[in-house]
Specification:
The structure holds two protein chains of two kinds. Chain A contains five helices and six strands; from the N terminus they run βαβααββαβαβ. By secondary structure, chain A is an alpha/beta fold. Chain A is globular and about 50 Å long. The two termini of chain A are about 30 Å apart. The C terminus of chain B is likely disordered. Classes of the chains: A alpha/beta, B alpha+beta.
Amino acid sequence: MQNSHIEHRTLPRGVSLSFDLAQHIFIRGVNESVVVTDRPHDVASAAKKQWYALIRLVQRERASTLKAVRIAELSNQMAWMQQLIFTSKAQEYLPTKNYVLFATYNDAHRSLRYSTLYITIPLSSKQLYSLISLLQKDSAVIIYKSSSK
Amino acid sequence: MRASKTYASLIMTNYTMSQMNFQTTPQYPEAEICSVCGRYESKNEMTTGPNNNTGELTLICTSHLRNSRQLINLLADYAANQRQSYGHLTILRETADAKFSY
């Protein structure tokens, strides 16, 4: 919980949750993330689809540039993106690293340590604290607010 | 005519006396530096960015999120800069644990 940054985030108009999640996971660039949601399977498959679209975009950017440093860095990013596992099966199998776990509140505790926590459903402060206590140092908590409020 | 003049001056006096603490400098919201473009932005206009090579969390402008292609290139350049500027620290950290057999 040390040095955790808590961000309250509202989805911009016309942007889906899955796209925003995929883009934010890409920006963070960390190996262990947890997304707390009430429909883990649906959100995981939608985010995975957006993730693959993002991989294709990175591939196109790598192909379009002539800068050697940027090509090398985009190759590193692509390697990381391709080995990241999107899973919603917390009860069956959880990888030790390079994963994004989509889980309900109860299943989210199965992940031992993580660097980024995305909360897409309303949680009580007690529930929130129990999840934040599992965070690593210098980690981020992104709490999505519903746009109707 | 004289009465209205007096009244006007009275209003002005009272107005100036009641406004003792004028805000002479504009209050800007707390600004943070964007890790990928280096621009100062208010905290409300920023989102969580990547961790730098020392492990600290950084922030980036939300305006970058609107253009995925620009974001990919900015992040690639940022990562390359981080790798170059802190590369020697990583090497030192690795050699500290090395064991020599002689």
